[in-house]
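Protocol step 4 of 6: structure prediction from sequence.
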Amino acid sequence: MQNDRCRFIVDVGYDTALKIMFRNTLIDLMARPSELARRLGVSNQRLNNILSIRKTAGLNAPADLL
């Protein structure tokens, strides 16, 4: 039986992977970014800067949230 779904593997850095994982967590929790920021004890602006794929927030910024 052939699977009609296409699958792709994308190689990204660990910081980008963490950003994607945090975004997936937001979806899983059905939470807003402000709720995740509150749970992590950071400001909304800091969380948005860290989770932005287009911005470089420093290599360890996403890991610092853990």
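Step 5 (inspection) to follow. Helices lie at 14-29, 33-40, 44-51, 61-64.
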